[in-house]
Amino acid sequence: MDSTEAVVRERVVRWEDPTILAAVARGMSGRAFLQAIADGRLPPPPIANLVDFTLTEIGEGRVVLSLIPDESHYNPIGSVHGGVIATVLDTVLGCAVHSTLPAGRGYTTLEIKVNYVRAVVAGAGPVRAIGRVIHAGRQTAVAEATLVDGRDRVLAHASTTCLVFEIPAAGAA
């Protein structure tokens, strides 16, 4: 085989109906909902299967996700794509906010800022995204997150502001 010939790799992604998961979320506190996903009592959202991260810790205003970087996350220059890192950080930030919400309340990201500190590459072992809420208000929440490697070196840092709102009842316009 020529050294420039590509070796094809494949990754299959499967997920469960996310509308069912969203309906269940309406009736649970954010922390209980996230814990049910972490414990396997509820399926993860499709993005978790697509990017291949898992919820590993859930606390009040603090959430940890784990990801094992691999080639399927790569950009054209041989490191994990910044969009994958931003997705993981946005997820852990949102989950940290969600962990503070009572049943019937939801959130959406208003803004996110990401600082990339070190390259993330396959074979680096698991990385952890640690999110924590700085402010949980009635209408807005502010959170920060850090992506660290196995030696707790910072790979990226992010902050967010989220809009907090009442989730409309199913079928409401």
Provide a quick synopsis of the model.
By secondary structure, the protein is an alpha+beta fold. The protein has helices at residues 18-26, 30-38, 46-51, 82-98; strands at residues 53-59, 62-67, 105-116, 127-136, 140-148, 154-166. The chain has a six-stranded antiparallel beta sheet with strand order 1-2-4-5-6-3.
Task: Summarize the structure in words.
The protein has a single domain, classed as Hotdog Thioesterase (Thiol Ester Dehydrase, Chain A, Roll). It has 173 residues and is an alpha+beta fold. The N and C termini lie far apart (59 Å).
Distance between the termini: 59 Å
Strand content bin: 25-35%
**Radius of gyration using CA atoms only:** 17 Å
- Mean pLDDT over all positions: 94
Unreliable stretches? none
Please indicate the count of domains. 1
Strand order, largest beta sheet = 1-2-4-5-6-3
State the helical fraction. 10-25%
The biggest beta sheet reads: 6 strands, antiparallel
CATH superfamily: Hotdog Thioesterase
Second CATH tier, the architecture: Roll
Task: State the name of the first-level CATH class.
Answer: Alpha Beta
Task: Tell the overall outline.
Answer: globular
Count of helical segments? 4
Using DSSP, what is the number of strands?
A: 6
User: What's the CATH topology label?
Assistant: Thiol Ester Dehydrase, Chain A
